[in-house]
Design brief:
The complex is a heterodimer of chains A (258) and B (242). Chain A has 258 residues and is mainly α. Chain A folds into 2 domains: 152 residues, no CATH class; 71 residues, no CATH class. Chain A contains 9 helices and 2 strands; from the N terminus they run ααααββααααα. The longest helix of chain A is centred in the last third of the chain and has 32 residues. With 242 residues, chain B is mostly helical. Chain B has a single domain, classed as Arp2/3 complex 21 kDa subunit ARPC3 (Orthogonal Bundle). Chain B contains 9 helices and no strands. Chain B is globular. The chains are: A mainly alpha (258), B mainly alpha (242). The interface between A and B is large, with 92 and 90 residues.
Chain lengths: 258, 242
């Protein structure tokens, strides 16, 4: 799945657009979602971001739909708590035999949160699916984030893919040997997996150190980056879009339910 | 848990993008900032003194990421992930663990939409700072008191996990006190999360303990080099296992 997300980031329809612009659109949309007082603006962001992902970046719709299911499973529990602890306004629904009731205020707040999370997720996926990680590192370097931090992130990023592969192999061989049959065995096997993974990880870290020293590592990693200028029409469209969302957010303040 | 299906599983330790309203997400950024700055300072110093530290920290960060995206076996059929951050806290101390936590959380947000950008500050505080700090201090106190190493590691990892979940509940309750007030909201969030998080903390403690055991048996140099265990303790532990 990680590989797939990153594959799309490398090959999508918006690949040649300036990464700074994409990052700016994504982050600004997130901020607009979080600060919107009503649910209309986040829904608009969710719709436009999804449209951009599907139509401009040409990500397959089925794959994107599967990605969107993740935030749904995330948010249900926390939003349920907010729904029940916020009282005020008309009572919409009462849970029989329990002191729990859904009121208008609670429902409005829960709806607002749900749309904000949804809009934020679509914007995050917009960044994740259109911008390769290496270009984000390059932007961070230009923003003068400390070099040690960027190098550490780069190396971590590189190792995540290696380790996922390795964890998958160990896991599959454990399953073939019935390692996850009972609960006790599952904990044992999982501990073994994590332990072996850690030791192998550490050894590959030491090997990397030798390899880097052999290639004259001097404490700085180079990030290859080709600069693509921001096209003026693209920037103008982005600003127009963001101000439109901002206008919608201002004009549709307040709750809509009831 | 095959890596191809990693994403289909939710977890509640991360606060999702868009969930924390203003001013709370800004506040948690400010709270986390000093720890990150100290961590970066320590990191810079460490990398200049020992160049080999960078790759080792990187693999540790990647390990935490991979561990936290694997599904743990669980009692009640619910799906849970280990946080893995307790181990980072024990190995490198709380401030460097905070930097590792920040990197892992950025990757989780941008790769997997676990957590988010505006909620990064809050998540870094609960998972990258509070949890590892608890693990670190319990481990230090335990070894100083001469307690059983494995029991100490178990407590450090399990309590780090529990504390992370308590901090998350506090963060949510502060942002959404509802009409019940902070305490009422806190108990509501804490009670709902306890269903998955208490068993998870116990399992995570057991798993990290097993990880420690494998390291002691197979490659104890790692632990002695980081000054986590003395040579004599390692010999004693290996003799006891044999």
């Amino acid at each position: 799945m990680y590989e797939v997300l990153e594959d799309f980031a490398q090959t999508n329809g918006l690949r040649e657009t300036n990464p700074g612009l994409k990052l700016f659109i994504g982050l600004a949309s997130i901020l607009l979602c979080v600060s919107s007082p009503g649910p209309v603006a986040p829904l608009l962001v969710a719709a436009t971001m999804s449209a951009a992902i599907l139509a401009l970046a040409k990500i397959p719709a089925r794959f994107y739909a599967r990605l969107l299911l993740v935030p749904v499973s995330f948010s249900v529990m926390s939003i349920a708590v907010v729904l029940f602890i916020t009282a005020g306004g008309a009572v919409l629904l009462e849970v029989p035999a329990l002191p729990l009731a859904v009121t208008a205020d609670g429902a409005n707040l829960a709806l607002l949160l749900l749309t904000r999370v949804f809009g934020g997720m679509c914007s995050l996926y917009f960044i994740a699916l259109t911008t390769p990680m290496t270009e984000i590192f390059d932007i961070l370097r230009r923003l003068r984030v400390p070099a040690a931090f960027i190098d550490l992130s780069l190396l971590t990023y590189r190792f995540i893919f290696i380790l996922i592969e390795e964890a998958g192999q160990i896991y599959r061989s454990q399953v073939m040997r019935l390692g996850y049959g009972r609960f006790r065995e599952s904990v044992q096997s999982f501990g073994m997996l994590a332990g072996v993974l850690f030791i192998r990880t550490w050894e590959s870290g030491e090997a990397l150190m030798l390899a880097m020293d052999a290639r004259c590592y001097d404490g700085r990693l180079g990030i290859p980056a080709d600069s693509r200028p921001v096209s003026i029409p693209a920037l103008a469209t982005a600003l127009l879009y963001l101000s439109a969302v901002f206008g919608v957010s201002l004009s549709t303040g307040g709750p809509v339910l009831v | 848990m095959p890596p191809t299906r990693l994403q289909s599983i939710g977890d509640i330790m991360h606060i999702m993008e868009g969930f924390l309203p203003s001013p709370w997400w800004e506040i948690w950024f400010f709270v986390s900032l000093p720890f990150i700055v100290i961590g970066l300072y320590q990191l810079n110093k460490l990398v200049q003194e020992k160049r080999e530290a960078l790759p080792l920290l990187a693999v540790a960060g990647a390990f935490v990421f991979v561990l936290s995206s694997l599904k743990l076996p669980s009692f009640n059929g619910s799906c849970s992930h280990p946080t893995g951050t307790g181990l980072g806290g024990v190995l490198f101390g709380p401030c460097i663990a905070a930097v590792l936590g920040l990197i892992v959380l950025i990757f989780q947000a941008v790769f997997l939409a676990h957590g988010g950008i505006t909620t990064l500050g809050a998540n870094v505080f609960s998972m990258g700072i509070a949890g590892p700090a608890v693990a670190y201090f319990i481990y230090k106190a335990g070894t100083r008191a001469g307690a059983n190493t494995y029991a100490t590691v178990f407590c450090a990892a399990a309590l780090a996990d529990l504390f992370t979940y308590v901090v998350t509940s506090v963060q949510l309750a502060l942002a959404f006190p509802g009409t019940a007030g902070f305490l009422g909201a806190f108990s509501a969030f804490a009670a709902i999360f306890a269903v998955t998080q208490v068993p998870l903390a116990i399992i995570e403690g057991a798993v990290i303990m097993l990880v420690f055991k494998y390291i002691v048996q197979l490659k104890p140099e790692i632990l002695t080099r980081l000054n986590l265990l003395s040579e004599s303790t390692v010999t004693k532990l290996r003799e006891a296992a044999a």
